[in-house]
Amino acid sequence: MDKELDIEISRVIKAPRDIVWQAWRDPANLVQWWAPKPVVTESIKHEFYTGGGFGTLMRMEDGSEFASEGCFLQVVENEKIIFSDALSSGWRPNASPFMTAIITLEDHPEGTAYSAQVLHNSVEARQRHLDMGFFDGWGTVFEQLDSFVQQLKN
């Protein structure tokens, strides 16, 4: 990890890894927890395999929208997901890359140790992400993910 370019956040999700994986694998599940509420997420593309495309449209409370398109660089069942907006599906370069995220899932006595390492291409990009409220936003998403997977367990 490069402390000048990267940000890391982790939590324990109180569910086994395979349940957390279900929350990622199915786009109908993903949109339930992906962005801090009241933001509404629509899955545009969810080709959940290495090299597959990834796209979301997030509708903000004020009616504005934020679209994001990327590529799954690596998908290892129940262990790791690496995605980036530097590429879209089929490894095609995107015009304005911002980040690459490495999600890891590990067994934990209380469930799943879930961590996200987010890599940026510049100090400015990292700072912009922090200024956007990275820790509050991703922290809220972790809480939403934990709450959502409790429903999947039942």
Automatic annotation (TrEMBL):
The Activator of Hsp90 ATPase homologue 1/2-like C-terminal domain, residue ranges: 14-149
Query: By its UniProt entry, which SUPFAM superfamilies does this protein fall under?
Result: Bet v1-like
Task: Kindly name one Pfam family recorded for this protein.
Answer: AHSA1
Q: Which family does it belong to?
A: Belongs to the AHA1 family.
The protein's name in its UniProt record: Activator of Hsp90 ATPase 1 family protein
Name the species this protein comes from.
Teredinibacter turnerae (strain ATCC 39867 / T7901)
